[in-house]
């Protein structure tokens, strides 16, 4: 299989590599068509004729995503992605379903049989090593992505794909940039795969109100509350996250990963809603939730770093599947990030007293 970067295992001595194979997890993928674009975390490959999966997968949460080519290899199905949490020496088995063009689980008996074969190294030369050099990048993107966050949000069945997001297609984008994004997400893929559409529900994202609504306050007070959405943030944290800031940050990471790697339009809209809420707060970062905003700035720093880095690297493999990338246009005047970032930075930099950690994060 092809890859954008070399694997760390290529430089390891045989004993160290064997130990990693034994302790790391294995994702055994049977009958995946050649030329399928396959990704795990920040790593993307083009499937070769001998490909049977990935070994040396570190324990923890991971995002697996793929899009299969047409018979002639010039068109691709919508990206399908799912989260999984691996444990030490665990073997996870999936098999390609040719008619449905997706990976499916096997019976328990078959899974045990294949797992034992993996542990006897019968598939070892057909398994590509997880690139440990890039694992640090993934940990930065998934630092709040606990198994409980994933279980809370992921759809029934676990599969995330734009092909199940019909309800979003009729919603008008608010800016030219968002319109171009939506076109990029659904171009060619969606119309060609009507068979994938179903009654499946999407992810169980938290509903983020666009504005504060309150009957018992004056119009002036309501305007101020919508200019500074700290009270809305507190309400959302209390009602939807049991007051736990890290759960909200976990959802922010979940939505970014499924948007950027899984090509999900629904995920982009949730990421936008959460970013918009947090960047519209003035009181929270300066006084009531300073530590949360230190963590938030760190989260979006790595998200932007990942997006921009991929923009400037070779994209030959990802382009086959129409992957998304961040570029300077994301901060142009016609997209929400420009205005919100500008206003948020003004609030922090013009404040008479600012927490040192917060100030260091935004500079």
From TrEMBL:
Signal peptide: none annotated. Residues 205-361 form the AAR2 C-terminal domain. Residues 24-155 form the AAR2 N-terminal domain. Gene3D superfamilies: 2.60.34.20, Aar2, C-terminal domain-like (1.25.40.550). Belongs to the AAR2 family. This is Protein AAR2 homolog.
């Amino acid at each position: 299989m092809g890859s954008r970067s070399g694997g760390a295992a290529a430089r390891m001595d045989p004993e160290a590599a064997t130990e990693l194979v034994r302790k790391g997890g294995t994702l055994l993928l049977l009958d995946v068509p050649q030329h399928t674009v396959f990704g795990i975390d920040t790593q993307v490959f083009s499937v070769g004729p001998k490909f049977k999966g990935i070994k040396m997968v570190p324990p923890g949460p991971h995002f697996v995503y793929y899009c299969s080519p047409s018979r002639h290899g010039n068109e691709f199905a919508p990206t399908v992605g799912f989260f999984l949490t691996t444990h030490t020496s665990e073997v996870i088995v999936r098999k390609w379903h040719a008619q449905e063009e997706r990976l499916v689980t096997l019976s328990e008996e078959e899974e045990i049989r294949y797992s034992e074969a993996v542990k006897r190294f019968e598939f070892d030369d057909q398994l590509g090593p997880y690139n440990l050099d890039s694992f640090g990048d993934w940990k930065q993107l998934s630092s709040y992505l606990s198994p409980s966050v994933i279980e809370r949000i992921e759809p029934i069945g676990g599969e995330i794909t734009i092909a199940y997001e019909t309800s979003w297609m009729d919603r008008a984008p608010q800016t030219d940039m968002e319109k171009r994004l939506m076109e990029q997400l659904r171009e060619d893929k969606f119309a060609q795969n009507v068979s994938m559409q179903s009654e499946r529900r999407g992810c169980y994202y938290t509903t983020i109100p666009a504005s504060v609504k309150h009957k018992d306050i004056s119009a002036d007070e309501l305007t101020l509350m919508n200019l500074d959405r700290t009270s809305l943030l507190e309400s959302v944290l209390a009602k939807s996250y049991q007051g736990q800031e890290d759960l909200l940050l976990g959802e922010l990471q979940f939505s970014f990963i499924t948007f950027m790697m899984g090509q999900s339009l629904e995920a982009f809209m949730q990421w936008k809603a959460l970013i918009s809420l947090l960047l519209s707060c003035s009181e929270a970062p300066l006084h009531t939730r300073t530590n949360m905003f230190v963590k938030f700035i760190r989260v979006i720093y790595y998200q932007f770093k990942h997006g921009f880095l991929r923009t400037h690297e070779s994209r030959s493999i990802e382009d086959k599947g129409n992957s998304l990338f961040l570029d300077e246009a994301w901060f142009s005047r016609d997209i929400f990030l420009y205005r919100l970032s500008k206003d948020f930075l003004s609030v922090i930099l013009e404040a008479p007293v600012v927490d040192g950690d917060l100030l260091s994060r935004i500079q």
